[in-house]
Amino acid sequence: MKVINDQRTNEAALSEYFAEKAVKALIEEAELTPKPGLVDQNNSGSHHDLNIDLMIRSAKSLHDTFAEIGRISFKRVPDQSLREDIAAIGRHGENVMFQATGGTNTHKGAIWAMGLLTSSAAIHPLGTTPERIAVTAGKIARFADRFAPKKATHGTVIQQRFGAPGARGEAELGFPHVVGAALPALYDARNKGIPEPLARIDTLITIISRLDDTCLLHRGGMDALKAAKEGAKTILDKGGSSTQAGWRSLQQLDAVLIEHNASPGGSADLLAAALFLDSLP
Ligand SMILES: CC(C)(COP(=O)(O)OP(=O)(O)OC[C@H]1O[C@@H](n2cnc3c(N)ncnc32)[C@H](O[C@H]2O[C@H](COP(=O)(O)OP(=O)(O)OP(=O)(O)O)[C@@H](O)[C@H]2O)[C@@H]1O)[C@@H](O)C(=O)NCCC(=O)NCCS
Ligand SMILES: Nc1ncnc2[nH]cnc12
């Protein structure tokens, strides 16, 4: 009996731990400044219905969603039943987010990515590599979402129009832009001695330079996606945000995206996912 109680205490403590790390990553992403086209501490980028306080309130409102996903995932295997359990919690989390923000979409993509990664982190022992956690999260995502509402979303419309795999595809492939782009960029910048905030900005810019972000496509079509990718590549070609030329190009990209009313919201979510994985032991 004592063993069972200990195990439950352990699971409760660990799911609390994962939820705290997930919320912290979302807040750190929101507070990171400057970010092109996105909400940060300087401005609301291309978002007229968002601001930094709302982003932080939204992030905090998701604590219980991530804790519940972690708790329900312990000692499970990735299967249809786990997929459906966390889908129900994730959908409830979306409603909680909309209540916290008065109906504005702040973190839909983040709930999805972070929910899957939290579930996977809870399946594996502490100390599992980010790559392994991402592979298992992808496995969970590939089970069918049989109870998903059958209505068109920005993502489904954009997939039909442009063929972009979007948030769903990114997860099903095991988060290639998190483990194959963001984390290597973050480690590389740290190895070069670049200060942490600039290392994180360069990580975001690396994601923007490679991701087909459906948030950009939905708001500004192929022109906005192209402008974002090219602008991000220019910053990286100039040595990143820690160089004077790179910093100037970063400010130019911010202005270009605001002019297009375009926002790399999916890239921001994947930066938060990378910060979450990076924060685990
Ligand atoms: C599988 C789901 C993600 C649903 O898929 P769907 O394709 O239907 O989703 P969308 O409604 O399009 O939302 C997906 C959000 O993911 C982010 N994103 C975009 N591109 C990518 C990418 N390539 N890789 C990863 N992530 C990506 C993006 O989120 C951010 O932008 C948001 C604002 O975007 P948007 O709504 O388009 O713009 P608005 O400003 O709201 O538009 P206006 O109406 O104002 O014009 C912001 O929230 C960021 O987070 C996409 O928006 C999944 O959600 C799902 O099925 N969930 C069900 C529950 C579940 O199964 N959960 C399991 C684990 S919890
Ligand atoms: N900082 C941010 N600004 C706008 N949309 C976002 N989605 C996730 N993070 C965001």
From TrEMBL:
Its EC number is 2.4.2.52. GO terms for molecular function: ATP binding; triphosphoribosyl-dephospho-CoA synthase activity. It catalyses: 3'-dephospho-CoA + ATP = 2'-(5''-triphospho-alpha-D-ribosyl)-3'-dephospho-CoA + adenine. Keywords: ATP-binding, Nucleotide-binding, Transferase. Pfam families: CitG. The keyword Transcription does not apply. It comes from the Bacteria. GO terms for biological process: prosthetic group biosynthetic process. The keyword Phosphoprotein does not apply. It is an enzyme of class 2 (transferase). PANTHER family: 2-(5''-TRIPHOSPHORIBOSYL)-3'-DEPHOSPHOCOENZYME-A SYNTHASE, TRIPHOSPHORIBOSYL-DEPHOSPHO-COA SYNTHASE. This is triphosphoribosyl-dephospho-CoA synthase.
